[in-house]
Amino acid sequence: MRARMFYSVLVAVLFLSVISCGSKDARVVWNDTLKKCSSNDLLGSKVLFFGASNNIGPGSVWRLRADGKYSPRWILPDAPIHNNNESTCGGDASASFTLSSGASLDNAIAPVTGSLGFDLKRARKVTLTPTKFRWDDVVEGPYENYIRTQAKDDVKADLVPANKRFVLQRALFITGLTATFEFDSTTGLNVKGKVKEGAIPASDLGFNADAKWEGNTKLTLSSKEGVYFVGELVPYNGGFAGGAPVFGATVDASKARVVIREE
């Protein structure tokens, strides 16, 4: 078992109000999308958008920093998780976000967290289209046993109650994710000079993808693998306390920030 620690830079805010969707927040927009895939397992009111990732997922350990930002501490790729059944999405299942003039896609909805994130977040519109999705869960008993018997000593020491850590207990896994970014002509030409067509590694985006341009204004990224990008955090005080997820629609977006960079 190899536990990896995240070294972090700020990339995301929790919610984005969007014009094209009647100023709905991201959770509402994605629920409208997932309804076209399945009538069950929609996003609850307490979810954290952390950007598309091939690595971070259920079982990862997070902390609340003194500045009010949330930072992932450990990935724990060997932690036991339960993979639920997938739901297939139709061709019209997509989430589209349009920004007002001067706004920025500096949030997890533009699902990029790597070195190209800054340039792609200059898009005026982003459309995310899933092919399939499922919820993956942490089962409390096996996870607690894993921490006691298999986790490294530094992980165990970090999860003592006094540290007030959180565990990503449930996360949405999407396969066949396509992200389309639309730019104005000037910005698009600039971004095209930096984002080349073809394969782009996770170090540049947060996930492995293929890039394709239509002219100088429309870029489509197609994920090569399944990705996590939204989930629920619960307190882990030496074990699960049965508490509710800590995020909700009433969270102040200026404080609910994610600090994440995949290494």
Characterization of this structure:
- This protein is an alpha+beta fold and 263 residues long.
- It has one domain.
- Helix content is 16%, strand content 32%.
- The protein contains 6 helices and 16 strands.
- It has helices at 26-34, 117-120, 140-149, 153-158, 185-192, 202-205, and strands at residues 10-13, 48-53, 61-64, 69-74, 82-83, 87-88, 95-98, 125-129, 132-137, 165-175, 178-182, 198-200, 209-214, 218-223, 227-236, 257-259.
- The strands form 2 sheets. Strands 1, 2, 3, 4, 5, 6, 9, 10, 15 and 16 form a 10-stranded mixed beta sheet that branches.
- The longest helix has 10 residues, at 140-149.
- It is globular, with a radius of gyration of 18 Å.
- The protein starts with 9 loop residues before the first strand and ends with a strand.
- The model is unreliable at 1-24, 102-110 and 248-263 (pLDDT under 50).
